[in-house]
């Protein structure tokens, strides 16, 4: 049986260390977990594949369609969204950024879909036509 | 068991229940599920110091069972019981080894085990281990809340001579 008798200062330091270690672990987990890859489809065909977890600085991708449609996609770490587009309804622009594979961002007039999935196969099937 | 002791234990159980239910109504603005103040553990710890594991265990069982009936939903008893059991085990194993002034350390042990127990129960119920990603944040919350409740218990433990 271990008898544990230590000064109070020991325990304070121990638990503060535990807090710091936990916070560190949390931030490490934030960056390595969620291997989310975003796919951009134009007319059902995958034109962009972006690994959202390895994005350090946000950037923009412009996707154009044959009949003049333009969508500007804003890519940042863990999130993707459409920042501007020349479609009449602007639903895609007003959509909040997505970070999981639940909802896609769709621009119907320009036939653009932005979707997050683990691999192209589990995302592409729903959009081929 | 003397009537005096039984009455005292019942009052403590009622206090623990009240704290438990009232605390469940306080919303905590944390992105993590399961962060709570855990104030009812003050009573468990006090009971441990006053009488011992057996009596404290009785009060805890009453609190968990009735608390789940009164507060949220009866199914929350699983998480409450898992956390409470681990918390009780940790505290009853360690409370004797610490002077009364360092009771807050015991409380932190209890709070950490409580959150671990709830996480494990949640992972088991949801069938996925992905919820364990919340462990670091819950550990931070456990240390802070455990220290707070432990300090309360420290002050209350001085009244041991009246029981």
Describe the model:
The complex is a heterodimer of chains A (129) and B (163). With 129 residues, chain A is α+β, with helices and mostly antiparallel strands. Chain A has helices at 8-32, 91-94, 120-124; strands spanning 37-42, 45-51, 59-64, 70-76, 79-85, 105-107, 112-117. Chain A starts with 7 loop residues before the first helix and ends in a 5-residue tail after the last helix. Chain B is mostly helical and 163 residues long. In chain B, helix 2 (41-50) packs antiparallel against helix 3 (53-70), helix 3 (53-70) packs antiparallel against helix 4 and helix 5 (103-126) runs antiparallel to helix 6 (135-157). The longest helix of chain B has 24 residues, at 103-126. The model of chain B has no long low-confidence stretch (mean pLDDT 85). The interface between A and B is medium-sized, with 15 and 17 residues.
Give a short synopsis of this structure.
Chain A has helices at residues 8-32, 91-94, 120-124; strands at residues 37-42, 45-51, 59-64, 70-76, 79-85, 105-107, 112-117. Chain A has 129 residues and is of the alpha+beta class.
What strand order characterises the main sheet of chain A?
2-1-7-6
Count of β-strands of chain A? 7
**Number of strand segments of chain B:** 0
Q: How much is the radius of gyration of chain A in Å?
A: 22 Å
Largest interface: A-B, 15 and 17 residues
Instruction: Indicate the structural class of chain A.
Output: alpha+beta
Dominant shape of chain A: rod-shaped
Q: Which structural category do the helix and sheet elements of chain B fall into?
A: mainly alpha
Descriptive labels:
heterodimer, A: 129 residues, alpha+beta, four-stranded antiparallel beta sheet, three-stranded antiparallel beta sheet, 33% strand, disordered C terminus, B: 163 residues, mainly alpha, 6 helices, 71% helix
Q: How would you summarize the topology of this molecule?
A:
The complex is a heterodimer of chains A (129) and B (163).
Chain A: H1 8-32, E1 37-42, E2 45-51, E3 59-64, E4 70-76, E5 79-85, H2 91-94, E6 105-107, E7 112-117, H3 120-124
Antiparallel strand pairs in A: 1-2, 1-7, 3-4, 4-5, 6-7
Chain B: H1 3-24, H2 41-50, H3 53-70, H4 77-94, H5 103-126, H6 135-157
Helix pairs in contact in B: 1-2, 1-3, 2-3, 2-6, 3-4, 4-5, 5-6
């Amino acid at each position: 049986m271990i008898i544990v008798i230590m000064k109070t200062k020991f325990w304070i330091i121990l638990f503060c260390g535990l807090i710091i270690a936990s916070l560190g672990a949390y931030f490490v987990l934030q960056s390595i977990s969620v291997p989310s890859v975003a796919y951009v489809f134009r007319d059902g065909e995958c034109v962009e594949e972006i690994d959202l977890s390895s994005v350090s600085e946000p950037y923009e991708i412009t996707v154009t369609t044959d009949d003049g449609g333009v969508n500007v996609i804003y890519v940042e770490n863990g999130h993707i969204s459409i920042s501007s587009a020349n479609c009449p309804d602007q639903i895609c622009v007003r959509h909040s950024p997505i970070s999981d594979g639940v909802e896609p961002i769709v621009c119907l007039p320009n036939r653009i879909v932005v979707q997050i999935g683990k691999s192209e196969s589990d995302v592409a099937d729903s959009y081929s036509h | 068991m003397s009537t005096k002791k039984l009455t005292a234990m019942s009052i403590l159980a009622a206090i623990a229940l009240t704290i438990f239910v009232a605390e469940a109504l306080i919303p905590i603005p944390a992105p993590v599920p399961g962060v709570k103040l855990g104030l009812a553990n003050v009573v468990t710890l006090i009971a441990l110091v006053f009488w011992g594991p057996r009596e404290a265990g009785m009060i805890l069982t009453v609190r968990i069972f009735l608390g789940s009936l009164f507060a949220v939903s009866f199914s929350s008893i699983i998480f409450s019981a898992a956390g409470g059991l681990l918390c009780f085990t940790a505290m009853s194993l360690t409370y004797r080894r610490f002077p009364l002034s360092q009771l807050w350390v015991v409380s932190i042990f209890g709070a950490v085990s409580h959150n671990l127990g709830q996480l494990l129960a949640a992972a088991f119920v949801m069938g996925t281990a992905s919820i364990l990603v919340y462990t670091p944040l819950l550990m931070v919350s456990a240390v802070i809340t455990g220290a707070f409740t432990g300090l309360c218990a420290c002050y209350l433990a001085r009244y041991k001579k009246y029981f």
